[in-house]
Amino acid sequence: MKTKAAVAFGANKPMEIVELDLRDPEPDEVLIRLHSTGVCHSDLSVLDGAVDFGGFPVVLGHEGSGVIEKVGSMVTSLVPGDHVITTVMPQCGRCNECLSGRSNLCQDMYRGFIGQNSPFYLEGKQIRRFVNSGTFTERTVVIESSVAKIPDNAPFDRACLAACGVATGVGAAIEATNIKAGMTVAVFGMGGIGLSAVQGARFAGASRIIAVDTNPAKEAVARKSGATDFINPASLNGGVGDHITALTNGGADIVVEAVGHPEVARQAMRSTRNGSGECVMVGMMRDGAEIKLDKSDIGIGRSFKLSSGGDFKGRYGAAKLVDWYMQGKLDFDVLINDHYPLEGINEAMEALRQGKVVRNIIDL
Questions:
Q1: Taking Cα atoms as reference points, which of 314, 363, 320 lies closest to residue 338?
Q2: Measuring CA to CA, how many Å separate 147 from each of 41, 91, 127, 159, 221?
Q3: pLDDT per residue over 92-126, tens digit each?
Q4: Disulfide check for 156: which of 65, 109, 127, 273 has CB 3.0–4.6 Å away?
Q5: DSSP codes of every residue in 168-188
Q6: What is the pLDDT of residue 114?
Q7: Burial of 152: CB neighbours in 10 Å, binned 0-12, 13-18, 19+
Q8: How far apart are CA 303 and CA 297, in angstroms?
Q9: Considering Cα of 12, then 17, then 18, then 21, what sign does the dihedral take?
Q10: Cα-Cα-Cα-Cα dihedral of 217, 233, 173, 65, to 10°?
Q11: Phi-psi category of 159—alpha, beta or left, where left has phi over 0 and alpha has psi -120 to 50?
């Protein structure tokens, strides 16, 4: 089978639209005709050479939605015609991690996270695919445990965001921490993950939600997502961590770092309340980056956690997020800026690179 795809042939190079060969699904895989895919900062990090996920060439993209066209002989939970989204965090339900309640660390993640067993070929040579997905294409083949069934009436261009950005952000707020109603939450970075963390904090009943971003244009969307305060660190005299500590009379109960920068992580830690505060980091750092914390950053009793996908539980958790959107409990609409055809993928990436957008959607 042939499929049109955007292929990254090297770091810091525009992706090229090419026709690839796509193999049939193996026994535990499904073939998906994709309708929409989000453009995530993780894709940009690989394209810009900040993060190595196995090398090039590669089909990027991991926030995909579409319709099942074919299933492997061992697939039991999906059938042709099902509306689905791909999920970054698999959930097989059988491995030790899934059985112990840590399915956000499902062992299926490592089967194809850096492109192993990719279904894509160009002139007989295998082309990698990104994090079990590869959704910058008309069709893809994915393992069953990385696919979540969604309602037939869920809009594809909204539902796809639950695959990564919304799951990671909402999860960081309600799964990776012990957030309780009435708490104060600070979120660093108002991209798709950070804005979703704001929504997760609102959903959990936080009484004060402090959004932090150096782009003043993000204030409106942050407040629409549920933020009660907005801080632009560029306008402060001194560190934002000390500012938040003073503003909250001791620090935020929960702090989410959704940027992936060492200094931002340090400031997030400084913003966390001594004794009981929790700081969770979900932003993707550049390869080789180091977080340096001194004694005053660590404080007393603060906890610091690096979370995998916001600790959200894979395919069933992603499907639940789509249900919450359909019920009006979460707002995916506020995250979307523009739609592009596949041929406009590089333009969509550039807008993200320049910080002009939260999420662009590729219509497939």
A1: 363
A2: 21, 9, 21, 12, 30
A3: 888 888 888 777 778 787 776 666 789 999 999 99
A4: 65
A5: HHHHHHHTSS---TT-EEEEE
A6: 67
A7: exposed
A8: 11
A9: positive
A10: 40
A11: alpha
What is the per-residue pLDDT across 229-247, written as a single tens digit (0 to 9) for each?
A: 999 999 998 889 999 999 9
Given a cut of 90, whether residue 295 has pLDDT beyond it is: no
Superfamily of domain 2-166+311-363: Medium-chain alcohol dehydrogenases, catalytic domain (3.90.180.10)
Q: If we measure between CA atoms, which residue out of 136, 129, 138 comes closest to residue 111?
A: 129
Distance, in Å, from the CA atom of 362 to the CA atom of 345, rounded to the nearest integer, reads 7
The per-type count for the chain, helices as H runs and strands as E runs, is: 12, 18
- Compute the distance between CA of residue 349 and CA of residue 357 in angstroms, rounded to an integer: 10
On whether the CB atoms of residues 359 and 194 are closer than 8 A, the answer is no
Amino acid identity at 12: N
Selection from 132, 145, 23, 149 nearest residue 75 by Cα = 145
Going by DSSP bridges, is the β-strand pair 63-71/29-39 parallel, antiparallel, or unpaired? Answer: antiparallel
> What's the CA dihedral at 90, 93, 96, 102 to 10 degrees?
60
Distance set, CA 216 to CA 160, 166, 219, 228, 235 (Å): 27, 22, 6, 15, 10
Residue boundaries of the structural domains of the chain: 2-166+311-363, 177-306
Fold assignment, 177-306: Rossmann fold (3.40.50)
Computed over every residue of the chain, the mean pLDDT equals: 92
The model's pLDDT over 160-194, given as tens digits with 9 standing for 90+, comes to 999 999 999 999 999 999 899 999 999 999 999 99
**Cα 25-343-24 angle, rounded to 5 deg:** 10
* SS3 state of residue 156: helix
Contact (CB, 8 A) for 2 and 22: yes
